[in-house]
């Protein structure tokens, strides 16, 4: 008997279903009703609802509600600081059964080797990991990346079963001004899915960008921006990560009328935040708690997300649909008590069936050693450009201050919360080193350094003391990448991320506990940001307004040019 024949026989009730969930209700995302019903599962799909079924395995879910598995429509697994296998084990129990992943971070370090690692991992994970091919490696000409991915290196992955399309197209000036490299990538994916990335873009420039066939966007930070993009045919991905928190700002749009054009994503979320708050379930709880209709919210978390990315087999609790199911306590609380992924009940035994995938990029940190003198900033006439950090945002303001001097060197100004920031090229290409100033970290002493620095992932370090900054940066080379906290000449906290300088080889529980210690080590320096390490990681991101820093210098993102 074929699978199709078995589906039909079990759906009609001629044969017992493989699994039947009995005694509960399912949330009908078409009508918004809670429907009391058995749910019959055959293989990887639902074959029966709105009826009574017999099953080879019957599970009592009395008093519980079944909803479709949640879909995270945009994220970088690398930003969870664990490998795809550990991300699978960490996040799937929260009900996230599908993720749309852009391996942009590892691709910027390792190129096609990093993409292959993710695709190989996606074939093994229990969660359905779908991959968007990284469109902008390097992200800009204003930084030094570890790799270069022209269209010729992406095309061999075009027809991979886990590939959906082209990932976030960050170089929106290149699109608008018809850069040949951009056009070649866009042309190759016409008719497929192309993900967008155009913060604050509006008007005719937005029209031109969308005319390239770009359909989704996760960078909206205001309801006004999002509504213009929805009106112009974009599917908006509402983001709530560890740093970028746009959910509350966009909640007014999350209505039953607009929910078919809205989905949810996390973009960047680490295991500590997942443990303390949750994942997409946290977004669902928060949205409903702020008065949004459960029907709108659960649609955005599942069926709307599936439709946006052409995943036509999932997102409803209905016969013929993929059996990605979450059994929750209440719609408002959204606590996942049982999860099914492709008809398989998620537990430790299921995770044990996965085959391991060998890690890559274990020697990717090739930065030259530095000393305190490398962080000297000569006195300049007039005002100095200073990055202004906005808590909960990856946008940084372009501020200007007259900074104090010591001899012929410009120094930090702790009274105004202005400290030094530096980016050090770490791919072994040119040894570039750039210095600047940043406001908003709250540090009163010491230094924090990281090899997680979007998008090129050079070493980024902020600090008050140049000797501590040098120690922190050099320590990253010794541990092959990660995060380091230094206070008064001593390393007070660190986590090793040897997989491309981005991910740990440890279980997510160890990463979570280590991050907890790191956070307290940073707070001991005076750090006031909720997520100082991830906020640090976005300082060198020169595709996000307004002032950033790369290994080549301070970048005026509005002019898309280095500051002289």
Automatic annotation (TrEMBL):
It catalyses: adenine + H2O + H(+) = hypoxanthine + NH4(+). One of its GO terms (biological process) is adenine catabolic process. SUPFAM superfamilies: Composite domain of metallo-dependent hydrolases, Metallo-dependent hydrolases. It comes from the Bacteria. GO terms for molecular function: adenine deaminase activity. Its EC number is 3.5.4.2. Pfam families: Adenine_deam_C, Amidohydro_1. Residues 65-343 form the Amidohydrolase-related domain. This is Adenine deaminase.
